[in-house]
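Deviation from plan, reported transparently: nicotinamide-adenine-dinucleotide complex.
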Amino acid sequence: GEVFDQIPRGASADVDRAVRAARAALAGPWGRMTAAERGRILHRMSQLILADAENLAQLEARDTGKPIGQARNDIAVAARYCEFYAGAADKLHGQEIPYLADFQVVVVREPYGVTAHILPWNYPAQMFGRSVVPALATGNAAVLKPSEDACQSPLAFCRIAQAAGLPAGALNVVTGLGEEAGDALTHHRDIDFVTFTGSPEVGTIVQKAAAERTLKCVLELGGKSPHLVFDDADPDRAATFIIKAITQNAGQTCSAGSRLLVQKSIYDRFVAQIAERFKATMAGSPAMDKDCGPLINAAQKQRVEGFIQRAKASGIPVLAQGKVADGVPAGGYYVAPTLFGNVPRNHELACDEVFGPVLAAIPFDDEADAIALANATDYGLIAAVWTRDGGRQTRVARAMKCGQVYINCYGAGGGVELPFGGVKRSGHGREKGFMALEEFCTVKTMVQYHGQ
Ligand code: NAD
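Because the crystal trials were delayed, the predicted structure below was used instead.
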């Protein structure tokens, strides 16, 4: 609730300068660099991030409110993105296709050109790594509009990129409001590609802007990701992951595990176990390093509390609530982790993304019912299947309509190496892993007649 820094409110003229700088970079040394040279710059970036990791983590924690331990992890992951794409930059190959006699056909991969990146506030450092770094690895010139609520680490990474030898114009950051700088960027006439991570509502606006010029658009939107807990699951292991999957980043994670679907035969026992652990969770300031920090801003706190109040008002039982630590700054945007039981299947808590530390437990009958229930929301980002039955693991995992499935584990968003993205209202396109490099390239088929 206190001001600690100021950032420029970029306008469309600033966006225009950034896009021009990116276009000029493509015509200059950046556009002529080899993949190996780009990889070396990214590798230097990873080293510089690691060398300054503690300062960057403190900055990230202060900017977003997340516990310092989670911020340290986020900075390490950002460095890992640079490292991964540094190594991958010169491993992305084209193809040679056998064709007619006296013909040679090759398929080459080329960068799109100027890529626009619009990012949310929940993981600014990781988002930079996952969106901007593969675009640079493939030789695009990037223009980034980070969230107005969290842009300190992307700005710091920009300075690091410069120190690592990234040529001027290859990476540009314009801070500012979504409806000003963001809108100006998505409508700019000289961008070639748009990638957006954020809410489905704004994602739709961005896709429409891209569609006006038939630009490629990658959207990473929200989720309502389920845990499917069957009666033969290892309850202790499942409980540990389930708690973390909804308290991490105070539930402000697109891949938060926000629905707890439990087989009826074990529902009471298992949900009671989760409730016990939930009571022990705590929200605290970044330095206290508890399970979660405050929410990002007053509006988000109000939104999450609105979900909690409406659920209570409709008679849905609160099975457990964590605590807010003593001594947190007054006026901070804290919300205690909250577990609701027997949530009706059509209630907003079972269908809509809360983006806060609120978990909705729902019983199911059998495998078919679990699958139908898991797939019943508009979203499809990730899911987790908890069972010891090998056949069921595969059957259920394959039946999930989403972009990632975990079996007896859960990684919100998964590792740097793992392709990530959604189906349905969770978006389209894939980030992370090697696949992100393919997303940021277009392919050109070259057909040559070489006969006499
Ligand atoms: P948001 O959609 O409000 O904002 C995201 C970004 O879009 C910000 O940078 C914002 O300034 C910009 N923006 C807003 N209006 C714009 C416009 N008219 N034109 C262009 N840009 C505009 O989302 P948020 O509140 O920052 O983040 C929360 C949401 O993001 C949640 O719904 C969450 O699920 C989602 N999210 C998804 C993922 C994922 O990978 N799937 C990751 C993180 C967050």
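The chain is about 40% helix and 20% strand. We consider this an acceptable substitute for the interim report.
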